Amino acid sequence: MSAAAAFEAFLVLLYTDESARGRFLADPRGEALAAGLDADQAEKLERIDRVGLELMADSLDHKRRSRVRPR
Hints:
Blueprint: H1 3-16, H2 18-26, H3 28-34, H4 39-46, H5 50-67
Helix pairs in contact: 1-2, 2-3, 3-4
């Protein structure tokens, strides 16, 4: 997997997995490095807009739930 693809996959994980997002928010650099990202990518993620991350995750969760209709 290319570095760009790994970075994007990690972002998808952060947007869609609440547990992974919680671990990341507690230790951004450590989680990024543990996911196999390089030091430059980890540094960029340390500066992520945390409020924006949570808002996007909530938005995606809301969209996902609205598509699943109870029987």
